[in-house]
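Example 215.
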Amino acid sequence: MATKNHKPAPSQKMKLIGSLTSPFVRKVRIVAAEKFIEYDFVVDIPWEADSHVPEFNPLGKVPVWVMEDGKSLFDSRVIVEYLENVSPVGHLLPKDARPRITVKRWEALADGICDAAALIVVEKKRALERQDPDWIRRQLGKVRAGLKAMSEDLGPQPWCTGEFFGLADIAVGCALGYLDFRFPDIDWRRDHPNLSELYDRLMQRPAFRDTAPVG
Ligand SMILES: N[C@@H](CCC(=O)N[C@@H](CS)C(=O)NCC(=O)O)C(=O)O
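Predicted structure in complex with glutathione:
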């Protein structure tokens, strides 16, 4: 699975560069798996001094997708759109503009929860006296408001947009899995039973089970 070889030779297999903990990387891995797209996974932690990520993404963030011609794509929302077009197998995004934008809205909400949660993780790595409790509270407020909005929008439906599984469910599942991983104290299952049922349904899929965050 993981190699240290970042540089793709011409016509080499596509590559995903990322960590095993990032919810954004997980989203890309799940989309690729659901669409049976082959690639090499290069584990690289962007926080480490010897990371090669900045050579592929000037923003120094993962995920990065390296195409066969060596050009790189980022961020995760761009990558998943690209993957959707690479393979017709297992459509995850509607073609029509209106339902498509609804899915992208779900993705923005789920990714936004991950952004806020990741900011808290970074803040909590600082020495206690350098942490800003107001900043942490502000980000936590976004996480809680985001969970509430997802739960209300999901309602009694089996999947985020109704009857069919797709990118919206993948993005929401990655956000919920990340909260379980980093914030076991946030009891989103108790507060939002419908999100809990959705996550259990998602975890029946091999693509989700195989990518649960580790670290
Ligand atoms: N909007 C970006 C977010 C990517 C992101 O924040 N990745 C984190 C890992 S979870 C990262 O690489 N952080 C390193 C840094 O900020 O320097 C996406 O969807 O890909």
